[in-house]
């Protein structure tokens, strides 16, 4: 039996995608080989990359003057790629709303020193809210403003994105890409590791306005230059790409189109998150500490107030087939990651289990 997997990443994939991959694992489209065994320049694999790109463009309504790249190194590698591609004057503003946002900022400091500034932070309340974006004093001469749209560990998300004028907005969307509608044209660069909402770990999506990626800093390694991957006809195939991860991403994107696109996905995600938060808010045992307005619809942290009871909950939930619910060590308690691939039934099963646990542990 398949478990309901609430892991934050790598995370659950849609069952039908796994079954499809299983079906053609030994013989990918009549090649007599698996997709991981053929050349990345094989026409059949290149078609996969091209379809994945086209699907992403249509799903997110990505304007034509934006490049769509499939790179490696995870979102963490992009923490460095962002300054290396964009920090022409050694200045950047960072909004620090969680652990990954802080890491991105620290990477910015490596290249910008004092020029990389933390212009707003929610560290004062252990990242349980998002600073008011209208009250942030951005630096007009910054090379970019960086933010993390959804904070995977702390369970918060931006509900509105700041106006940054001529300064490009850069967003790490690793844990909420494709979960809700965003206006891509508001951003200079969007990047996301695939292993939360798109595919197995390995591929990282970069969506970047072409006018911004023309001349990276001189010290930028070839592999981290976005323009390397965006060369005419390169199609993210400068070197060997993470083939299997891109292949699964393509199946996931196809499925999203089949299901009606991001708008539909967002509705389901709001519904799932609503069920869980409603239950928690009315519970006499479970609590969520995030300021309501900024609650993530992807990652839902909760606690009982007793470490012992939290541990018992995780253990019994696992035995009941509800797995990977242990919270991040920075927050403790539990965390249910309910990405696109988590079915409504999975969330309902979790709530039923929580109800039962509450009754038994009063
Ligand atoms: C998981 C995550 C990361 C780290 O991603 P890697 O691909 O492991 O480098 C960065 N940012 C956010 C928001 C994440 O959720």
Structure report:
This protein is α/β, with parallel strands linked by helices and 362 residues long. The chain has two domains: 16-258, 3-Layer(aba) Sandwich (Aspartate Aminotransferase, domain 2); 260-360, Alpha-Beta Complex (Aspartate Aminotransferase, domain 1), CATH 3.90.1150. 35% of the residues lie in helices and 14% in strands. It contains nine helices and 13 strands. The protein has helices at residues 15-23, 43-60, 74-86, 99-112, 226-229, 243-258, 261-281, 307-319, 344-360, and strands at 4-5, 66-71, 92-96, 116-121, 145-148, 150-151, 156-157, 169-172, 189-193, 204-209, 299-302, 322-323, 334-337. A seven-stranded mixed β-sheet has the order 2-10-9-8-5-3-4, sandwiched between helices. A two-stranded parallel sheet has the order 1-12. Strands 6-7 form a two-stranded antiparallel sheet. Helix 2 (43-60) packs across helix 6, helix 3 (74-86) runs parallel beside helix 4 (99-112) and helix 7 (261-281) packs parallel to helix 9 (344-360). The longest helix has 21 residues, at 261-281. The two termini are 31 Å apart. The model has no long low-confidence stretch (mean pLDDT 97). It binds pyridoxal-5'-phosphate.
């Amino acid at each position: 039996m398949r478990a309901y997997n609430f892991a934050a990443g790598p995370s659950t994939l849609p069952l039908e995608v796994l079954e499809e991959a299983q079906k053609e694992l030994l013989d990918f489209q009549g090649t007599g080989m698996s997709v991981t065994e053929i050349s990345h320049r094989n026409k059949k694999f290149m078609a996969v990359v091209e379809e994945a790109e086209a699907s992403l463009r249509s799903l997110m309504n990505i304007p034509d003057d934006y490049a769509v790249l499939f790179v490696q190194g995870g979102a963490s590698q992009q923490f460095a790629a962002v300054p290396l591609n964009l920090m022409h004057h050694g200045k950047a503003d960072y909004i620090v709303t969680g652990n990954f946002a802080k890491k991105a900022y620290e990477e910015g400091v490596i290249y910008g020193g004092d020029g990389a500034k933390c212009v707003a932070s929610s560290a004062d309340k252990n990242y349980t809210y998002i600073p008011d974006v209208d009250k942030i004093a951005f630096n007009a001469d910054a090379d970019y403003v960086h933010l993390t749209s959804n904070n995977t560990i702390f369970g918060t998300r931006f509900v509105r994105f700041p106006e940054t004028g001529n300064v490009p907005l850069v967003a790490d969307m690793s844990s909420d890409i494709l979960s809700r509608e965003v206006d891509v044209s508001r951003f200079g660069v969007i990047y996301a590791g695939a292993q939360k909402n798109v595919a197995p770990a390995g591929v990282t999506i970069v969506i970047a306005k072409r006018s911004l990626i023309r001349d990276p800093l001189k010290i930028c390694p070839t592999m981290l230059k976005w323009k390397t991957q965006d060369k005419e006809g390169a199609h993210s195939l400068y070197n060997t790409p993470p083939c299997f991860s891109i292949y699964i991403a393509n199946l996931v994107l196809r499925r999203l189109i089949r299901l009606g696109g991001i708008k539909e996905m967002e509705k389901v995600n709001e519904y799932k998150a609503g069920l869980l938060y409603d239950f928690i808010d009315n519970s006499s045992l479970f609590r969520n500490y995030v300021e309501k307005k900024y609650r993530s619809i992807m990652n839902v942290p909760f606690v009982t107030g007793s470490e012992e009871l939290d541990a018992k909950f995780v253990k019994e939930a696992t035995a009941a087939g509800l797995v990977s619910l242990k919270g991040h060590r920075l927050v403790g308690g539990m965390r249910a990651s309910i990405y696109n691939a988590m079915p409504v039934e999975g969330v309902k099963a979790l709530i039923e289990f929580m109800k039962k646990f509450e009754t038994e542990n009063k």
